[in-house]
Amino acid sequence: QVQLVESGGGVVPPGGSLRLSCAASGFTFTRLGMHWARQAPAKGLEWVAYIRYDGSKTLYSDSVRGRFTISRDNSNNKLYLQMNSLRAEDTAMYYCAKDASYGDYVSYFDYWGQGDLVTVSS
Amino acid sequence: QSVLTQPPSASGTPGQRVSISCSGSTSNIGSNVVNWYQQLPGMAPKLLIYNTNQRPSGVPDRFSGSKSGASASLAIRGLQSEDEADYYCAGWDGSLNGVVFGGGTKLTVL
Q1: pLDDT of residue A89
Q2: Contact check, Cβ <8 Å, A44/B50
Q3: What long-range pairs does A21-26 form, CB within 8 A, spacing at least 24?
Q4: Per CB distance under 8 Å, which residues of A are interface residues toward B?
Q5: Is the CB of B50 inside 8 Å of chain A's CB atoms?
Q6: Do A108 and B35 touch (CB under 8 A)?
Q7: How close is the nearest chain B Cα to the Cα of A49, in Å?
Q8: Each residue of B61-85: pLDDT tens digit?
């Protein structure tokens, strides 16, 4: 069965950096796009970033573009989110999610991880 | 402020039918499919409806989705207590070149 397990979250001061990881299993990771989404405390869902199955294309929300970098290691079935210049408003539960499409386009998130909490605070 | 607009709350009694709206624009719902996610309290989101009106395996047929123009709806018939959750619409926005979500609707089963 599909499993997505996030790790690397924690408390970081404003301006700091953190790298999230997502270990994927139960599907052919190398053939599917992947996403990061987040949810601030008591708030709604927000899409953060997408990466194509081969890593050749990435997309970002306006709120993180230039500060966050999504990447993947297809040899080890891992997804990453490098977060730099963190701000208080980046405090959220971060979810990795699998895209359902085998094509070169974004479709929908058919599986989500359980999430990892990132807190930006001094 | 979310790109897609949902009512913040909805409610119904067991057995009733409830509907949750999702309003967008020509760059998102008006030209692309809509997906719905259910988030039970304290849990990760789960896919509920995809491609506007398709149910993943395991989702009861009490849940249905539809779209008209730049608006979409999620309908739940035969409401049950376990349906109490937050519901989010989402889709691709061609102008923003990214995925957009609605602000979420908290469904209460009275």
Answers
A1: 98
A2: no
A3: A21/A78, A21/A79, A21/A80, A22/A78, A22/A79, A22/A80, A22/A81, A22/A96, A22/A113, A23/A77, A23/A78, A24/A77, A24/A78, A24/A79, A24/A96, A24/A98, A25/A77, A26/A1, A26/A2
A4: 35, 37, 44-47, 50, 59-62, 95, 100, 106-115
A5: yes
A6: yes
A7: 8
A8: 999 999 999 999 999 999 999 999 9
**Does residue B99 sit at the A interface (CB-CB below 8 Å)?**
yes
Q: A102 pLDDT exceeds 90? A: no
* pLDDT for A103 beyond 80: no
* Closest chain B residue to A43, measured at CA: B103
Q: Which of A95, A85, A72 is nearest to A9 (CA)?
A: A95
Mind listing the pLDDT tens digit for each residue in A33-59?
999 999 999 999 999 999 999 999 999
- Tens-place pLDDT, residues B8-58: 999 999 999 999 999 999 999 999 999 999 999 999 999 999 999 999 999
Task: Kindly report the nearest CA distance between residue B99 and chain A, in angstroms.
Answer: 6
